[in-house]
Specification:
398 residues; alpha/beta; Nucleotidyltransferase, domain 5; 2 domains; 8-stranded mixed β-sheet; 6-stranded mixed β-sheet; 15 helices; 38% helix; globular; binds adenosine monophosphate
């Protein structure tokens, strides 16, 4: 079964065509700058790549171009779009409506629309992606896979904010958590590596441009660092993560900004970028730190300390940890961050092997010392694979 996986952002569109039966990635690509000008990067294999600029005023032209590229160019991989059996869409916010993936119908779209106030940047683009596919491929089923769904197993004591209860019952104010598809995939891989079927205690550190950490007990999310929105928790590329709420009115006054401007400031100008004044890209910060930049060095220490703080808190919540997993751009590639996070945690059975940690690979790997009570794994995430699998299962079972 061929599944087209789509991740529609406000001005971008990531796609993968996956054979869900053999698990092969048939083609992959990215459309950027939708509504600005338009760039498409399409890849069938390392030697078969296509890169071009073309006007893309809306997501409709972008999806049409993706379908055309899959069928009608030098890099075509299918003869007709009828060969696509189903489309799996990444949807950022499923609220409390969705604790698993679902086949899209009108009722599902209405619910995703109702959640727009909770994800104003993401859900509108996700809905647009679904509606355009319905228009362009009316016979092909669409499946929505939610970033929040995996965290719907969190107990109330871990998802409520300590504000009057009616804010939850009337306004749906609570922690939802994000990166659920990644936390699910990585924790499942870790359970396989541990050889554990029933009981397992795992902490997944998804460290990328956006970062979050999740405590997974017996395969279920029990707590995660992101909250009502993806701003809470770890320090990220441009997001502050946790701050005292009192910072908001203080900054509003000092910088003469309104609430929306402050949220924008905390989402887009803070984190690594704000701390270092250099970049949101960790590679550039590491380089600056090696060149003697003091602010860059502090930024690195600060992000590691925040991760460490959550890691230890989650070890406490879980009552121990069988495995700590690192994933996403930073988690998979930065031995420096992994080492700094794990350093000094020998007292709780987390002992990193510095040599194993330095080995680079695209495979799942163990980087703890043989004496370590806790396993430390690097597990490359694969959200597209989960979306393709969920889509396959739902459409096959229909
Ligand atoms: P993601 O959002 O998962 O694509 O991750 C992006 C982040 O990963 C950026 O901050 C990159 O600087 C970081 N990253 C990628 N490769 C490396 C590397 N080799 N060392 C350090 N950071 C890296």
């Amino acid at each position: 079964m061929l599944v087209l996986v789509l991740n529609a952002g406000s001005s971008s569109l990531k796609y993968q065509l996956i054979n869900a039966t053999t698990k092969d990635v048939v083609a992959t690509g990215l459309v950027e700058r939708i509504g600005i000008d338009g760039i498409l990067k399409h890849e069938v294999s390392k030697n078969k790549k296509l890169d071009f600029e073309i006007d893309m005023p809306t997501h409709k032209e972008a999806i049409e171009l993706v379908l055309k590229t899959l069928t009608d160019s030098e890099t075509k991989v299918i003869n007709s779009i009828d060969e696509i059996d189903a489309i799996g869409h990444r949807v950022v916010h499923g609220g409390e409506y969705f604790n698993s993936s679902t086949i899209v119908d009108e009722k599902v779209i209405k619910k995703i629309e109702k959640l727009i106030p909770l994800a104003p940047l993401h859900n509108p683009a996700n809905i647009l992606g679904i509606k355009i596919c319905q228009e362009l491929m009316p016979k092909t089923p669409n499946v929505a896979v939610f970033d929040t769904a995996f965290h719907q197993t969190m107990p109330e004591e871990n998802f409520l904010y300590a504000v009057p209860h009616e804010d939850y019952t009337e306004h749906h104010l609570r922690k939802y958590g994000f990166h659920g598809t990644s936390h699910f995939y990585v924790s499942q891989e870790a359970i396989k590596l541990l050889g554990k079927k029933k009981s397992s205690k795992i902490v997944v550190c998804h460290l990328g441009n956006g970062s979050s950490i999740c405590a997974v007990k017996d395969g279920k999310s029990i707590s995660t660092s992101m909250g009502l929105t993806p701003l809470e928790g770890l320090v990220m590329g441009t997001r502050s993560g946790d701050i005292d709420a009192g910072v908001i009115p203080y900054l509003m006054e000092k910088k003469d900004m309104d609430g929306h401007q402050i949220i924008d400031y905390l989402n887009k100008k803070s984190g690594l970028l704000g701390l270092s004044g250099i970049s949101s890209d960790l590679r550039e910060i590491i380089k600056a730190s090696q060149d003697g930049d003091k602010r860059a060095t502090v930024a690195i220490e600060l992000i590691c300390n925040r991760i460490k703080k959550y890691l230890c808190a989650y070890a406490g919540l879980l009552g121990g940890v069988d495995a700590v997993c690192f994933t996403a751009g930073i988690g998979e590639n930065s031995d420096l961050i992994r080492e700094k996070v794990c350093n000094g945690l020998d007292f709780m059975g987390i002992e990193i092997d510095k040599n194993k940690n330095k080995i680079r690979s695209a495979e799942n790997r163990e980087i703890n010392k043989s004496t370590s009570k806790t396993k430390i794994y690097v597990i490359p995430t694969n959200e597209e694979f989960v979306i393709a699998q969920d889509t396959y299962k739902l459409v096959k079972g229909k």
